[in-house]
Write a structure and sequence with these properties.
Layout (H helix, E strand, L loop, with lengths): L6 H68 L2 H6 L1 H16 L6 E5 L5 E4 L4 H14 L25 E9 L4 E10 L11 E7 L4 E4 L19 E6 L2 E10 L4 E8 L1 H51 L14 H40 L3 H17 L1 H19 L5 E3 H19 L3 E6 L8 E3 L4 H11 L6 E10 L2 E8 L6 H11 L9 H14 L4 E7 L3 E9 L3 H8 L5
Parallel strand pairs: 11-13
Antiparallel strand pairs: 1-2, 1-4, 3-4, 5-6, 5-9, 7-8, 8-9, 10-12, 13-14, 14-16, 15-16
Amino acid sequence: MKKHKSFKDELRKSLISHAVLPCLLSIILLIAAVGFISLNLIVRRCNETGKSFSQEIERNISIYSRKASDISDMLSVDRFVFDTGYRVSGISEIYRFLNRQDIRGSFWLFGPELEFIFSTNSDDAERDYILNYLSAQRSNPEFWDKAVFMYDNWRLDSGTPYSCIIFKEISDGKDITGYCGFSLPADRFKTDTARDISLIVTNRFDRVFLENNESFSDERGKLYNQVKREGGFFKIGGRSFYTESFSLYEGDIKVYAVASCNTYIFLILISSATAIFIALLMCYSIYISAGRIAKKKTDIMYELTSALSEVEKGNLDVKLDINSGDEFEMMGNSFNVMLGSIRHLIKRHEYLARENTLAAVQVLETQFNPHFLFNTLESIRYMIKLDPKASEKMIVDLSRLLRYSISRDEQKSSLREEIEFAEKYLNIMLFRFSDKIRYTMETDEELLSNEVPRMILQPVVENAIKYGQKDGSILNISIKVYSLRDRVYINISDDGCGIDETLLSELKENMSHRHNHSEHIGLYNVHKRISLIYGDDYGADIVSLKGKGTSVILTVPRKNYIKAAYNSGQEVF
């Protein structure tokens, strides 16, 4: 057994699902967007800060490297030692250069055997470290082909800072006459512009030369393995970080920009919690609102179903009074109009049924009365002796005429069937009245499929024969079918004795009444059945002149008028 479903519950579920799901999806997308934007901000900040700091380091080293190269090309160590004026001029130029730099370094000058000659720095510990390092690199030609970034990875003295050492050989073209260069203290590099990002500088051995904000080096001064990556997230001590790395001077210098993600993660969690709380609040509000909307709309639906149940039971006096201001109110109004139309159609159908019954009785009484049958059968009896084939045709026409007239399966038929029925009737009349009757038919093949009420031609033809014949003269009957725009006209005319003017007025007056008040029932029934089926714009009209003849014009709607007019190229409207 199919489980019964409540429309109210289904409507509430539909409202909730169509409102809650987009809400939840929006919250998820919002959280994802916040997370993506936050992480993208971290990545972008690290990349921009690290790149800017690397360029700053490279710029300063390049300046000092070019100056060291210029000094090594122009400086004469012997003159510097023995010529006081030359020495004073050289030292003045060196101080002017140092004073113009953003990062002030120290100048160092050593002899060919690394004996100390001059320096702007009096730190003996740094001097000894430089001497030791140069002594170790004297036989390495690659060292002197580039600016070398060196790091003091152990402190000779608490006041000795980590330094970047840039040195060049001094040559007279044949022999090495000395060594000159600069040392750049690590604490002079500007890292205060990136307070929320830690900047780390290391050498190729991962010894930390410089770091600000946070420490990521161990007790030996080496960088943690977690930080040593080209870019990505890592965790140290339960904290999350993101790093971007930059390599300078073929890996001799490495710069790391490290950003803490904890604050961003906290903001993401707070935003997510807030969004989830808002989503739950919205879901609860939607649930309450959906219930109210469902109840309001289903109350109207229950009123509609109750009214439909009453109609199903046969009560057509139901009336809906819905004032919702929406489509349900329109449905209620349409329901009331529909029931009114149904009641009207039922009354009209009952009246039409009565009229059709009267028409059928009239046909049976007037067309096939015993006198008609007797005369027809008597004619057949004589024709059997004189013309057996003609009598056979009469019998066939009479049987078909009887079969068509008593068939009650359909109230309507095609115009072709109606014309054939009238023609069979006329053929029988021709046998009865010999050469006293003649008839002609003009039809349009396209109109013969048009739908018309049953038995509307024969009563008119019968009236023409019954009342139109003159003494001793031939009665000519014409049936012509034609159309004009959206209407089909059937003209049954004769050249008989016509109708008296007074009687013609009575017939026309009687046709306008609801009920027949005369003895002439045939034409009245034809007119009423047509007008009841198709409306008051259709029916029968009669024109007659005394002594000239009578014309009865039947008007019915044309089937598929617009389509036919379009195919023929006619103007429709």
